[in-house]
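Continued from yesterday's entry.
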Amino acid sequence: MLRIWQNARSANCQGATRRDFLQLGALTAGGLSLGDVLRSRASAATRSTLTDKSVILYWLDGGPTHMETYDPKPEAPKEYRGPFGAIKSNVSGILLNELLVHQAKVMDKVSLLRSVHHNNGDHFAAAHWMLTGFYGSNASNLPPQYPSAGSIVAKVRGPRRPNLPAYVAVPYSSTIGQRPGYNSGAFLGPTYNPFETGGDPNAKKFTVKNLGLPKSVSVDRIGDRSKLLAGLDRLRRDADNSGLIDGMDKFNSEAFELVTGEASRKAFDISQEDSKLRDRYGRNRYGQSALLARRLVEAGVRFVTIHNGGWDHHSNIQGGMKGRLPSMDQSIGTLIADLADRGLLDQTIVCVMGEFGRTPRVNRSAGRDHWGNVMSVLLGGGGLKGGQIVGASNAKGERPVEQPLKPADVLCTIYHQLGISLETSFPNFAGRPIPIHNHGQPIRQLT
């Protein structure tokens, strides 16, 4: 978890400790400085040929029903098809839930995967599986066992522009005591956890606390301390033949620029967007989160996760969907259209998914329960082919009947588009090398 500034208990009379100045951007775990973070990311960047593509992952936390979103079954018996009808999209043959009016207009730009499955109905294990490509424990009090796709991308690719984080979570809102959807670095280390924006992007005075300086500390004062440290380094440079001091200067300078420079603050300043465009996205938490995600990838962030929770509808699926789908639909549909209008969609992969689907048969409470046997994922942009349906569930939405796909296949498709070798591996906590692919393959119809 990358926090650019944290208040310290042992502060001086100006409210900041000496250690705050010496270690800008201290991480909550491991005692890593922001210089350590930047050094590690830059080292990773030199080991690979960078692409200019980014990823926006729209995470539907709680498990959205596939029957009421991307895989409606209008011909199924009523107890399966549910309370909603289906509408045509702008691609012949692709039907969506009748409430997804905005996404129906952009289906030519993205594709639907209707045969993703892992056969697990536990929130924790399923979320871990979808976002890492690996099965994880279903114990809610255990940390993630494998790194998320965002963390892997951040490590291998780093940010697309300097002075910006590689991996951002917008907004941070964990209701289960874990980082949303297990979006962590796991055995890659806390350096590759997402930068957490916090707060509500729809708030009138939305600010990213992690980027601010304490009120008692001015940029000039930080600059003076930075100059002092640089002067002390110069005194030691004559005795240093390894280049270590010069390297420290470079990375500490980048850390300084991230905190005090304009690039990061401008990227996160959603108030700079035209009010009419903000209206198009929707004046709510999720609409403005999607708009902020677009700003971030446009500025140079590599991977952004939008966290949209509240999809665990065990009862009253009709009321739940009427309350959740309109804002979700408007934010996603507008995001895809806006990226395309700006010429950014070819460089930006958009992925929409949750941890599992819901039971095909409506239960006695007029809701649907957990169902990992089949689910739907929206995937497009970043050079992927749009306007397609890949895979299929059976007539009642119970299981895959065409081209069964696993979570690893979805993530490997993303890695492939980013130019990341699927043979890339990293040592786990026991020192064993773990390939990122977990036997997944890029989805051939899309690449």
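--- second protein ---
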Amino acid sequence: MKRKLCLFSILCASFAQVNFAQQDPAVTHGMYTKMTYNPGATGSEDGICASLIYRNQWDKVNGAPNTVFFNVEANLNRFVRNLGAGISVVHDAIGFNRQNNIHLNLSYKIKLPNSDFISVGVGAGIVNVGMNPTWVPPQTPNDNLLPVGFAATGLDLNFGIFYKSQQNFYVGLSSTHLSQSILTSSVSNLMTYNTARHYYLMGGWRKDQLFGDFDLDLNTLLRTDANKFSFDLSARLFFQNKFYGGLGYRSSDAVLVLLGMEVTPNLTIGYSYDFTTNRFANISWGTHEIMLRYCRPIPVPPPTIHKNPRHL
């Protein structure tokens, strides 16, 4: 019990003065939420897609992270040539701390030979952070070392470049929190949150009909805030393009197991379990993640029929 309380204190204490750690949450199903990390990937698929991911990290650890990703994006080429647009919402809770990121993303495609394209994207929105600690007795109201309530909102800007080949290959380079907003508590100047820039390199490749009815899908995501580096690797096998299973690895964190299926032609559901490999392994029951993704073509308006009044 004492060990759990110590770990919980470590999770909460990061807000005490200045937070410099990596701030963007990682998810196992990152291949379905590329837009969150790289606005250049907005609308890279045809039609309109909505993705919802819920992540319960380090299950059974008090105050451990719980994260929700919600994205809606569309390829608007039918209405505005080469344009993609989307909305990205991320809610991350860890200990007493809460962070909410909301962005409007726009991308512009530059067509290349063989139907390949490069798209450049920007994301503009807000980052909101806060904490509302409830300390257990004995309470010491005059102890300046104990963090108090905190809430602040600032401008947040993202930028990304994304390349996609018709040979089922993609790669992207991006940065989040370009504005590096410094959020300060109205209660105490000692309470400060710095939104540090994060840099991402993503890539993936899919081989259809690797053997028989099986397709191979590979994805990777590398991230750094110029202080710490981490990466994700995953490989999935699709059967008849309806069911998938795979394995992955997140550096210094977990071994990943992924399962999913296409419930309908438009709806995909996925689940992953992360076997924790870091120091939380002895007290955590692993990490659970659920993913829902719904995609459909943008409806085509019916053709307008004009009648000639001379021919009834």
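The chain has two helices and 17 strands. Residues 130 and 151 are 4 Å apart (CA to CA). Will compare against the first tomorrow.
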